[in-house]
């Protein structure tokens, strides 16, 4: 122990007195490790972020009340919408009892004509381009929603006070007696859990691999230093201990830098939102256990890694002899981790399905970590084998290949982080693409016939309906509006839509031909055939749910729809205005309008919303889409996407540091090459080859591992095997792109080192 | 007497606050071997680097074959070094990852010679310097003297018009040192090349036709002193 | 080697008594062979006769040791000529060369100049020998090598001496 202390102290002194080289090395290590630490801390904060967010959204959630209204009852109507392409959490509320319950973060329920808004919403209202929003919500702002009532700092949310809500069965609102969803969240189903476990493994293993390589920065200079120590009589154990001092210092400095990065990033996090997700800085708190694990584990790991790495290097007094040059890397033990990992995963085939089956998280996580980490272990062997066989082509290739042969381990280390990250991302993507279709809920809407559906629950007559249509039509980007009275029609238990509109509207609705005012049509498809003319029906219309009896006239014309309806309600009875007047239907009915418009620009959608709100704020505008993804699944996908990008970027940044460091060690040869007249282009190309070869090998390995791993996991969920090759190509390309970018960024440094002044620097 | 091939006139060059050259002169005629002598740290290597266009002087002119080196672009100077000059440096000059043979072939490859031909020529030169047996080894695996001779082979392999050598015999015993010097002087006389030779050893300098002494960054012409 | 020129060199920094001259000589160059008084006075009287030194004054008291000698302009010229001239390169020159370097340093002249002059002369001879070596037979080569090594040793020793003494004077004379 005393010896350890003494040798570590010596190592620390060597760094402190080591001059610029040692300090540069230490700085690079600290920055590299720091980036990794920041990412680890970020990952360690994910549980806290999710819990706090869930707590808050649960607290402002609501369940429809049953039984008699109470003192605290509130009528509500969700009006979720979009603004500038981002989601808006909007809820119309109306006090029913004398002491209405208030949602979290709100001090007083807004009265009619008032609203309470989130800070971001208020900022948008006050912004110069906020006119659309102000028109959409012509309410007085009477308060701000506190943080405890928001899912994130950059959420658009608003509570609108209303006096036109009605709470009956088919009314325009429901009733709640208290805020908060008492039923706990339904929990993650096993498939989602599998995806999440894989996601976290795919994020963390590359970071860990990267940190492991970062503590080996500058190993060449360190090796030389060790040789010098041996020369003055230090034994091998001593040199190893002094060398680990530098790794230890680097790791500790990296912890400090990483904590700094994390704290700085934490202050910036509230400025970001990604796909409607934003995070409070306060929520970004690392799990204490994980944080301690990072703080203690990292320095210990740094020392261990150095000790293990130095076993390959025999520091002899007269220079450093690398054993690797004489002993080739062996394959068999490198195969152990991935094989064991697959061994843990394969037997789980078919065990995990959405409904049933349970996931042994520990077993899966262990398997994943082994396979992914195994990739990093396999890579040096692969690089050595392939590079060893290569011969030179041009001078640039020759220089690169010889350099790689001399230090294939270093080359493999450089790209191992990227390799593992890409392998993980591919596995994730494969699993994801395979199970995703299970989460796509068909909406039975046909986005070709109309791009938005506007629902107006007020009971309005033809004049009001026409005014609504005209209001919508004025909105820019809108091509056509078909507004019709909307109800339901039943024959026994079979239901269909009841539509009252002029001939043009009916043509747009169901494609009926040869229409004249006074006509009645009954339409359907093969699967839901039309009601027969002459059938006795029950009509349901409007908020009062009046049940009316009506017999479809025998003269009604039957038609088979050529296309599905926009909303998927294929069976319908259509009445022209004169026919409606002849029926027991009241003149005032709820209105639905089909809008044909180009809504690809979020602004166009905002304008349509505003146009509708100008007629009545409670009018609902809905985008028509072919299918919607389960919201929770979408959240997971988004989170993983952010993670992959962050990991690739961080690894890219650190790769830059590594390559610069490797170049620094090569100043002398570069200067000599420059001295006898080597072209810059030649050296540039050799640097490119030198990165490109290991990168290509790494990516090839990554694709192999990723596809196999993804396939195994997909088998686990019993979904059919399907590979998203374009996605795989995308991820691989992103990895390659990062490397190319890094190489391009290092070229200026190469040019600088080729200045002959560098020739004599020792 | 022929006109000088390479002239460095009143060259000054500082590294930060250290003035390495403070008005040094050097002129070399074709076929002439000039020894540069002087105490350690006096600026010999710096003068050599300036004369070869590796370093740009802060002031003063370097002309080669009538063209002013100091006015050429970096690319042109690189091309000149590639095609006209040969170098033996004082420190770590072999590319450590390449084999000795590849190191010797490198200038030829850079000049565009085909791989096969470059290797053949390189091997001939290694043999002439008595180091053919280390052709396949890496510089790290050969002795200092062998490495030095490999570097000499690399400098001569392109048949340069000016050969710059910084302590080329520093790591060699007398016998091999003499062999190298004989090669230098012969190649200079045969092909009309000029040799600029930095050395501490009078016996090596005795192979030169003339010596220039550098002291405190200034050159002293001994012909005038004589 | 000339005792006369050496004494002239010692006198250049200022007039001295004969007794002082002997002491200064013995200290720097005498080593195993201190000068006899007789040698000193006979040399001085030769220099007096040649006009290279002059008597500066006689102090009261008896005996030759009371006389002070000073160098004349002619003496300085002679000394300059000697110090600036290369010795004929031949082995075992060190006594003369050493004396020259010391005197140069003592009299504020540049030891480097002496060194450069001598180096040029040595190298000229070495060049000739080197050239002869390349044309001669083995015996010739070996003989030339022997001479070359000795000449080189001389030059190197001289360089070292100059460097040592320069460092020393820097210490002694601020
Ligand atoms: N790249 C550099 N950076 C800083 N100082 C330098 C550099 N190159 C040379 N010098 C300084 O310039 C001076 C002359 O150096 P130079 O290498 O030319 O000497 P030299 O005569 O070749 O010495 P040696 O015989 O030891 O090789 C020295 O003081 C040296 O420290
Ligand atoms: Mg030098």
Automatic annotation (TrEMBL), chain A:
Residue ranges annotated for the ABC3 transporter permease C-terminal domain, each copy included: 201-314, 643-747
Domain of life: Bacteria
One annotated Gene Ontology cellular component of this protein: plasma membrane
Keywords for this protein: Cell membrane, Membrane, Transmembrane, Transmembrane helix
A Pfam short name: FtsX
Membrane topology: Multi-pass membrane protein
Keyword Mitochondrion annotated: no
Main location: membrane
Transmembrane portions of the chain: 26-50, 191-215, 247-269, 289-310, 331-350, 362-383, 418-439, 640-660, 687-713, 725-751
Subcellular location: Cell membrane
PANTHER family membership: BLL1001 PROTEIN (PTHR30287:SF2), MEMBRANE COMPONENT OF PREDICTED ABC SUPERFAMILY METABOLITE UPTAKE TRANSPORTER (PTHR30287)
Name this polypeptide is given: Membrane protein
Lineage: Bacteria, Bacillati, Actinomycetota, Actinomycetes, Micromonosporales
TrEMBL record, chain B:
Pfam families xref list: ABC_tran
Keywords: ATP-binding, Nucleotide-binding, Transport
Alphabetized Gene3D superfamilies for the sequence: P-loop containing nucleotide triphosphate hydrolases
GO MF annotation list: ATP binding; ATP hydrolysis activity; transmembrane transporter activity
Taxonomy, superkingdom: Bacteria
Domain ABC transporter per the UniProt entry, residue ranges: 6-226
Keyword Transferase in record: no
Assigned GO CC terms: plasma membrane
Record-linked InterPro entries: AAA+_ATPase (IPR003593), ABC_transporter-like_ATP-bd (IPR003439), ABC_transpr_LolD-like (IPR015854), MacB-like_ATP-bd (IPR017911), P-loop_NTPase (IPR027417)
Classification via SMART domains: AAA
Listed name of the protein: ABC transporter ATP-binding protein
Organism of derivation: Actinocatenispora rupis
Lineage of the organism: Bacteria, Bacillati, Actinomycetota, Actinomycetes, Micromonosporales
UniProtKB/TrEMBL annotation, chain C:
Domain of life of the organism encoding this protein: Bacteria
InterPro entries in the cross-refs: Tscrpt_reg_PadR_N (IPR005149), WH-like_DNA-bd_sf (IPR036388), WH_DNA-bd_sf (IPR036390)
Pfam families, per the entry: PadR (PF03551)
Annotated Transcription regulator PadR N-terminal domain residues: 7-78
Protein name (record): PadR family transcriptional regulator
Organism name: Actinocatenispora rupis
